[in-house]
Specification:
Layout (H helix, E strand, L loop, with lengths): L1 E8 L3 H9 L4 H6 L2 E9 L15 E2 L11 E4 L6 H11 L4 E3 L2 H6 L1 H10 L2 E2 L11 H5 L5 E8 L2 H11 L4 H10 L8 H4 L2 H14 L6 H6 L9 H9 L2 E12 L2 E12 L3 H4 L5 E8 L2 E7 L4 H16 L23 E2 L1
Parallel strand pairs: 1-2, 1-4, 2-3, 4-5, 5-6
Antiparallel strand pairs: 7-8, 7-10, 8-9, 9-12, 10-11
The chain binds NADP nicotinamide-adenine-dinucleotide phosphate and L-homoserine (HSE).
The site of NADP nicotinamide-adenine-dinucleotide phosphate has 29 residues, from helix 1.
Length: 338
């Protein structure tokens, strides 16, 4: 039996859900000849008790955190310390599993060579447990035409609850208790989390060098949406959704995030209300729809664990599209911005 030692950075919503899932997989790992154990767990406050994690494994000291480990799982968030440790691990040749889309979007220039080598695993970073990254990699044989997604669970949930009559504050507290919010919820409601995600998807699908700054430049959030505005749209047979899109515009691939008004029959409304959904259009595959839960501890931890299996089996992580895809001449689906 080979022992695999995991350095786990973060034991909040996702990290603690992962620690709960791991024991149930011991027998399956053992069948692969692997004994998987947590070596140490990096948090801000090691005095806080964390069910399923022995207190002796908790540390707030990043020095030596990666000593004698075989894999780093980063579920802390942020782009500074998390980014430095992820890069340190990759430079040591360790596989890294992360759910951190902010890091992937904003420090891509440093991460990209490691992702291209297949050492970076990040299925959980977009749509959480709904497996979109692997699916998009399997679509490289198509001419991508456009894609549009509801990729932020918080905004999707807030909009659905306000349509149902809840106030913004009530809906926000509910989303918080469900573990949907980023540590800084302005990332959610400001559209920035969706921008991080469409940036990750774009690099995987059409342009490995898609610029984060350009995506941010075309990003708006939902702060101006009120229950009245959302309910009025519904009464007229429409729904307002925060949609992240990737589409051709004037000979370039463009990514944008903004609230749009969609007919109630649109798949992003029928499948994406309260959760995540994405419509991909390619040639020759045609339109495809992916939908499911896009936030929450267990849902996200399931994708982290799936990546851990792949890393331990020596399968490659999520590589960006090998070269920029041609920009189609045909115009994308028109949307009415709100
Ligand atoms: P969280 O509940 O806020 O947990 C963050 C964890 O990281 C906490 O244990 C925290 O320690 C630790 N941490 C944060 N900064 C640290 C630092 N500088 N040094 C040491 N430890 C630090 O966040 P989460 O919801 O689990 O999300 C974690 C990551 O997964 C983020 O990148 C997020 O974007 C991503 N993600 C989350 C979801 C979701 O549904 N929640 C879904 C997909 C992806 P303390 O506990 O001591 O504060
Ligand atoms: N805060 C994020 C969301 C978590 O609401 O979608 C999942 O990435």
């Amino acid at each position: 039996m080979e022992t695999v030692r995991i350095a786990l950075m973060g034991a909040g919503t996702v990290g603690s859900a992962l620690a709960e899932l791991l024991p149930g997989h011991r027998a399956r790992f053992a069948a692969l000849g692997l004994e998987v154990e947590l070596a140490r767990v990096l948090v801000r406050d090691p005095s806080k008790s964390r069910p399923g994690i022995p207190a002796g494994l908790l540390t707030d000291n990043p020095e030596g955190f990666l000593d004698d480990v075989d894999v780093l799982v980063e579920v802390a968030g942020g782009t500074t310390l998390a980014g430095d440790l992820v890069l340190q691990a990759l430079e040591m040749g360790l596989p890294v599993v992360t759910a951190n889309k902010a890091l992937l979007a904003e420090r891509w220039d440093e991460l990209r060579p490691h992702a291209e080598e297949g050492n970076l695993y990040y299925e959980a970073s977009v749509m959480a447990g709904t497996p979109i990254l692997g699916a998009l990699q399997s679509l490289w044989g198509n001419q991508t035409l456009e894609m549009h997604g509801i990729v932020n669970g918080t905004c999707s949930y807030l909009i659905r609850r306000m349509e149902e009559g809840a106030s913004y504050d009530e809906a926000f507290q509910e989303a918080k208790s469900l573990g949907y919010l980023e540590a800084d919820p302005n990332l959610d409601v400001g559209g920035i989390d969706s921008a991080h995600k469409i940036c990750v998807l774009g690099r995987l699908t059409v342009d490995p060098g898609l610029s984060w700054e350009k995506v941010m430049h075309r990003t708006r959030g939902i702060q101006h949406l009120t229950p009245e505005l959302l309910q009025k749209a519904r009464a007229e047979g429409y729904a307002i959704k925060l949609v992240a899109s990737l589409f051709p515009e004037q000979g370039e691939w463009v990514a944008a995030v903004r609230p749009v008004r969609l007919p109630e029959s649109h798949p992003l409304v029928t499948l994406g209300s309260g959760r995540n959904a994405l419509v991909y259009k390619g040639d020759p595959v045609g339109p495809l729809v992916f939908a499911g839960a896009g936030a929450g501890g267990g849902v996200t931890a399931s994708a982290v664990l799936g990546d851990l299996y792949r890393a331990l089996l020596g399968l490659p992580g999520h590589q960006p599209v090998p070269s920029a895809a041609p920009v189609p001449a045909q115009a994308a689906e028109p949307f009415e911005e709100v």
